[in-house]
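Re: the 293-residue chain
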Amino acid sequence: MSTYYTDREYGARPPSVDTIDDRLWAGLYSLIQTRIGDGSFGLRFPEQCPDGNGPCGCDVQAFHRVLTAEVPWVESPLSATETPKTPVILDLLEFCARAVGEPIQGAYHSFHRHHHLSWDRHSGLQRFVGEVNMLFRRNALALELTPEGQARRLLPAPLAEVVGWTLFQTGDAETDRLLESARLRVLSPKEDDRRDALEKLWDAFERLKTLEPGANKRVQADALLDGVASVGSGYRGMLAREAAELTTIGNSFRIRHSEVTQQALTSQDQVDYLFTRMFAFVRLVLRRTGRGG
């Protein structure tokens, strides 16, 4: 997909927007309507030639009937001026991605004044994904469609690099499960999934403190940090202070507990910041103690 002048001269806007607004929805709506009109969704919902000579377009009624059954929160017919909630739009785009193909014109049927069609699934999906992602990029949306047509979240750049390539081999199956679940859920477009990722990461952090031998959790946690930095060094002291601060954060904010005394995290930026901070600490500990990461 080609870039625009402002992308080339000033750089692409960083993906920081979590919600599809009215303007972006109107563009996506027009894109979908165009694909309905040119028969792209006839791959899954073919309109048949009245003379029985094969498909000739998209069966619009079938498209909308199945859409409202598979995505029951969407209003049909779609409206350019009524913007669905972002998760519903993402379901809609995935529905479209499953149905799209590049229409290929065959023989011309002069009586009905239409061409009979076949479809190229790969090129149609590639084109649709590219057009959606271009609209997302131009509006700084922190989302994209994968080449398979599934919606996923774009992480902040510092976090994306480490999350995408981290493997966990802590020696404890439950800790590995918590870390992998956190890694996968933070990629979700759903805010609730990302908050759950933060909770699982903090649970894994608490469990990490008990992996080393020792008489109690405090001794075990000290032994863990001793494997990361030299005992008595300034760096080792800094790590101890950071571990203590992360523990306080987990107890003070609504991450692992839900008591009324805990402060709620009020924005996704706060969730991302705390996840990035904790993930960086956990990854350092894992790598320096030979536990993957």
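The beta strands are 46-48, 55-58, 102-109, 114-120, 143-145, 151-153.
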